[in-house]
Amino acid sequence: MKTLVRLVLGLLVLKVAVANPRFSRQADLDSYDDGNYDVDDINSENQEYDYEDGPTIEDPEVEIGTLAPPDYNYPMPEASLEEQEEEEEELPLKPQLIPQGSGGSGVLMGPDTQKEEGLLPTQETPQEGTGGVETTLGSGLPEPEEPEEPEVDTKGMPTCLLCTCLGGSVYCDDLKLDSIPPLPKDTTHFYARYNRITKINKSDFASMNKLKRIDLTANAISSIDSQTFMGLPELEELVIRENHISQMPALPETMTLIDASHNNIDSKGILKEAFKDMTGLLYLYLTDNEIDYIPVPLPDSLRSLHLQRNNIQSMHEDTFCNLHDFNYIRNALEDIRLDGNPINLSRTPQAYICLPRIPVGDLI
C-alpha cells in the first residue's frame, strides 16, 4: 500500500515539473537540431540583431595547392681552420683604386701595383744632403705656387705684441728682425734666434739690470760694441753662435756660460786674460773659429772647454796645470775638446798631469 502511494506521488511531481514553462524551454534548447535552430527565437526577448548580407571583415582567401613547397636547405659542415687558411693564402691580392674623397689619394694600392706599367711613377729614396726627391702622382696639373709671406713693419710696434712675453722671458725668434727691439725693464731671458740682426749697439741693453740670458743664435751679426754687456750686472749666459763675429766683446765677471761657436773669431779677437776673473764660468764653447792658441788663463771653475776645429798648433805645459805646485789638481775641468786642430797632444804630456781626464784630440 505504501509503495502505491509513493508511486502516485512521484507521478504527480513529474507531471508538475513537466508542466513548468521554464523546464519546457530548457528541454527545447537541449534538443535542437540544424533544422529548428533559430537565433531570433532565442534572443527575441532581449534585443534584435540586424545582420547585413555580407561579412564585415574580409578574410584572406588562400588557394589550396598554390603555396610553394618548403625549401629544406641544411647547412653544410664548415671547413677546418687549416683549409680556410690555405684558401686565404691562395687568394691573390689585386690592386684596388681608392676613390677621391674617401680618405685616400686616388692611387692604386697593393703589392702588385708597382708591376703595373704606367700606374705609379718611380720614387727614389732621398740621399743625405740632397734635400729629398720631389715627385708628383701624374695629376697633370701644375703645382700651385706658395704665396710669399707678407713683410711686417715691426718699427713702432710694442715688443710684447710683436714677440711673446711670458713672465720675465721675451721670445722674438724667427720674426725677420734687423735690430734688437725695446725690451721691458723686468726682462730676465731674451731670445732673438733666426733673425736678420747685423749689429748690437750698447743702447740695445741699456739699464737691463735683471737680464740673465741673451740668445742671438743664427743671425747675421758682424759687429758688437765692446762695452755692450758690461752694464748688465746679472748677466750669466751669452749665446752668439752661428753669426759672423770676429771680435769677442768684453763680458762681466758673472758669466757662467759663453757660446760663440761657428763664427770668425781669431786669437786677436779675444781680449787678453778675458776669462781670468770669471770665477763662476762653467762652460766655454769656441768651436769652429780661427783661434791659434788656448785663451789662458782659465778659471778653476771651468768644467767644459770646446775648441775643436780651430787652428791651435801648440800647447804649453802650464796651460792647465801649475808647474810650481805639483800637488795642484784641476778637478772641475773634465771635458776638453781639441779634435780637429793641427796639434799633437803627445808632445806635451806634462800639460795634463793635473787634469782628471786628458783632452780629446790627435795623439800622433
Key descriptive features of the protein:
single chain; 364 residues; little secondary structure; nine-stranded mixed sheet; 5 helices; 13 strands; 13% helix
Q: How would you summarize the topology of this molecule?
A:
Blueprint: H1 2-19, H2 21-30, H3 39-42, H4 81-90, E1 96-97, E2 108-109, H5 159-162, E3 164-166, E4 169-171, E5 189-191, E6 199-200, E7 213-215, E8 223-224, E9 237-239, E10 257-259, E11 283-285, E12 304-306, E13 335-337
Parallel strand pairs: 4-5, 5-7, 6-8, 7-9, 9-10, 10-11, 11-12, 12-13
Antiparallel strand pairs: 1-2, 3-4
Question: Describe it for me?
Answer:
It is built from five helices and 13 strands. With 364 residues, it is largely without helices or strands. Strands 3-4-5-7-9-10-11-12-13 form a nine-stranded mixed sheet. Strands 1-2 form a two-stranded antiparallel ribbon. β3 (164-166) and β4 form a beta hairpin. It is elongated, with a radius of gyration of 54 Å. It starts with a helix and ends in a 27-residue tail after the last strand. The model is unreliable at 31-57, 62-66 and 98-139 (pLDDT under 50).
Helix content: 10-25%
Spatial shape? elongated
Structural class: little secondary structure
- What's the number of helices? 5
Assembly status: single chain
Strand order of the largest sheet: 3-4-5-7-9-10-11-12-13
pLDDT averaged residue by residue: 76
Major sheet, described briefly? 9 strands, mixed
